[in-house]
Amino acid sequence: MAQVEQRTAGGSEDTMQREQREAARKASSTSAQATREDSSDASDVSGMSDEEERYVPDSDGSSTGSSVGPCQRFGRGRKTEKEESSGSEESSSAEKSTRRPRSYKKQYCLYCQKPYVKIARHLQFVHKKEPEVAEAFGCKKNSNERKRILNLLRNRGNFVHNTLVAQSRTGTVVARKQPRTQRASDDFLHCMHCKGLFLRTCLWKHVRKCQHRPRGGQAAPGGKCRVQALAAFCNPVPFHVGRDIWKIACEMKHDEITRAVKADRSILLFGEHLQRKMSSYAGKKDYIRQKMRELGRLLLEVRRSAGPETLEALMAPRHFPQLVAAVRAVAGYREDTNSFRSPSLALNLGSSLSKICGLAEGGAGGAGGAEAARSFRRLYCSRWSQSVSAAALATLSQTRWTKPLPLPFVDDVKLLHAYLDMQHGMHKSALEAEPSADNFANLCKTTLTQIILFNRRGTGELSRMPLASFVSRDVSQAPSPTKLAAVCKHFRRIELRGKGRRRFQVLLTAHMESALNLLVEKRGACRIAEQNQHLFARPGALTPYRGMECLRQYAKECGAKHPDSLSCPKLRKQIATLSTVLNLEEKELDQLATFLGPNIQVHRQFYRLPEGTVQLAKISNMLLAMEEKTLPRYQGCSLDQIESQGVKTTQKKRKWEEGEVSAVERHLMTFIQTFTVPGKQDCLKCVQSEPALKCRDWTAVKFYVKNRISAMKKQLCLHC
């Protein structure tokens, strides 16, 4: 009885398996027929893998189409009965019971913007008159060139569709490959060359082997972050953002701060405001990126504390305490000492928030946003100073007072000069013998450092020196006075545009000028892009070398004892402080300050160190002279000419001028002729009677007469 039941069960299982095989055979037959109908077109796009033909996420990140879960792979073609019967019965029944009909991925046409499964056949029969389509189908069938052109047309059509989806925030986007796990649309980026949509983390692998990458000799950009920054600009530009500011935002390092910046409308509008304001400033992009990233850090800190998601929503009076707490957290506020770790960051954030509030008041956020911004402005003006600014300014002032300000040692500066001269000659000879990117870079960095060290100018201004300014320099010798003619013929002067639209000059020596001429001559042979119009250009890039990094590198390599002191600001402070020893006039100080960059007020306030030694040596003499009641004697004298009897100085002796000698001889000539040293009263009477002796005291007059008498006695002894 048990055996009969077992056979009956086995028979029912066999019947079920035969029905499943028959259903699978019919589905395979239908799939094979469809494959044969489009065999020619499928071969043209055979470069697509199964993963490439799967669908992708929505652009808005919603659950309906914005993300896709893992999918199964299904093979193509029809299996024979022998192949179907082979294998384990359990595995075949499990596979066929879960098998679903294949869903073909649709590609969007570049010309009519409609989705098609067989995009190659559609292009061949509907758009055959288009030049690119005609070029593709003019190639040999199944050739690599034909596949390359068709893949590019497919990617471009999908790119146009993805752009429309991103702008309208509805629909689904189409990518080349679909991940096995669920992903959002923000995880995808378009290739900057072929316009295909790839996973952000895998894009750098595709770029290195992309068939449409230019082969002009430039190496493929390496690194995930660098490739993502270049490809981010290929993504569709939001309709409420300008293209220029979007490009600046896309050039930032791609991290959570950049994502917060690009997703916030207020930060992007603030960047546009800065861009319009600084349209003529050469380094505006770096400054704008810095300000936008500061606001991005603030927004992320607010989100961590369960605050508003946007900066516009944060600009409300009820969120003011939360905003103050976020600024303090970002700037490193220490409540026990009421100080900031980064006081400048706190002040910069306050200034940026004030400007954003002003933009919102002007109607950037609508009527409701303007009213909320005005309310926030009143609260900001009344409470921001006591909440943030006062402590930040106190910390900044305290740091400036307690921070040591050492000047560069003269030995270190001489060592750096000698090392740069040696490197200059070596790299110049190497570039003349063998033009290469490495030799060009070495000579470029060495010459840039020499110019910075010689002129004591800011590193950023000299690094961004335009090529046209050097090429169009005036090589003719300008007429100059006789005393300066010999000096002027050894230098060349270049005028550049600095900060605040001020004009400043750069002096070049003969060996600097010859090195720059060689760099300009070898630009083409050393892979310098034509678009790079900087004099100190990087090979294979569009940016110049940074003078600060070059100066820091050679300061460490030269073997200086204190390489940290060989920085541009400290070198500028050195020349500004040493200028006090020269006792320059106001006009001469103004010329020096103009050459160094700032005006005379900035020069005195920021670039001079505290004059402790000067105060101790000069002003103390004046105070001691007041105590000794001898100050009226020095009427009309400078601080250098005041001497005190209470302090023994080792100043260098000053030569007696002809007017002073004549004044002494008019009153004390009888003492000299009789070989008698005058007394104090006679010397004081002489000093008070002669204006030429106002800078001499009575002891100087007495010892002058004594020295004259001693010299005359020596001469008499020699004659005897």
Secondary structure layout plus pairing:
Layout: H1 2-37, H2 39-44, H3 81-85, H4 89-98, E1 107-108, E2 115-116, H5 119-126, H6 131-138, H7 144-168, E3 188-190, E4 197-199, H8 203-208, H9 224-232, H10 243-250, H11 256-263, H12 265-277, H13 284-304, H14 311-314, H15 320-331, E5 333-334, E6 339-340, H16 343-364, H17 366-402, H18 410-433, H19 437-455, H20 459-463, H21 467-471, H22 482-488, E7 492-497, E8 503-508, H23 510-521, H24 547-557, H25 568-578, H26 586-596, H27 600-606, H28 612-627, H29 658-673, H30 680-689, H31 698-719
Antiparallel strand pairs: 1-2, 3-4, 5-6, 7-8
Helix pairs in contact: 6-7, 10-12, 11-13, 12-13, 12-16, 13-15, 13-16, 15-16, 15-17, 16-17, 18-19, 19-23, 19-24, 29-30, 29-31, 30-31
Q: Tell how many strands the DSSP assignment holds.
A: 8
Reported for the largest beta sheet, the result is: 2 strands, antiparallel
Mean pLDDT: 75
- CATH topology label of the largest domain: hpI Integrase, Chain A
Kindly provide the radius of gyration, computed on alpha-carbon positions and rounded to a whole number of angstroms.
41 Å
* Number of helices in the DSSP assignment: 31
CATH architecture of the largest domain: Orthogonal Bundle
Sum up the overall morphology in one term: elongated
Strand proportion: under 5%
Q: In CATH's first tier, which class of the largest domain applies?
A: Mainly Alpha
Terminal Cα span: 164 Å
